[in-house]
Amino acid sequence: MAKKAVVVLAPGFEDIEAITIIDVLRRAGVEVKVASVGNTTVESAHGVPVTADLKIDAIKDTPDAIILPGGLPGSENLGKSKETKKLAEAVAAAGGLCAAICAAPALTLGQWGLLDGKTATCYPSFEKQFPVSVEHSEDRVVVDGKVVTSRGPGTALEFALTLVEILVDSKTAGELQQGMLARA
Fold this sequence. Notes:
Layout: E1 4-9, H1 15-27, E2 31-36, E3 41-43, E4 49-51, E5 54-55, E6 65-68, H2 74-80, H3 82-93, E7 97-101, H4 104-109, E8 119-120, E9 135-136, E10 141-144, E11 147-150, H5 156-167, H6 170-179
Parallel strand pairs: 1-2, 1-6, 2-5, 6-7, 7-11, 8-9
Antiparallel strand pairs: 3-4, 10-11
Helix pairs in contact: 1-5, 5-6
């Protein structure tokens, strides 16, 4: 049975991060729902409108993974979303995967206590917003238990392939990497 993931978009999300994650996970056979904070049509940080499948408050079942793209003010808007926080906490409590990239690790998962005692990465300078309980890494993608974090737009493909490796398997991730001519 295919894993289920929710990618949450808030106004001002980072285009490359969101679309790369959605695309790569769907290519891998993950059942991806794109949920919005606010209106179903969400405008990216660069003015690109994207239509979500549903609003975040319409999600009733806990998915296997929640993924939070970064960008500004997208990460800030995600961090303020009570519904997104509630879903992330439910995913974590169920043993699912919580993932965030760019400013989102610091402004969402970190602020919500979901990175406590973990090693994580984020966009340069946002590590100052990590709680003291988070160990900062400058690695491009960091996996610590059931949490995956990444640095920014330039790491989005690595981040997405790491999510595939965890949610599906390493063979599928490798095939996608090769098929998309991504660097190893």
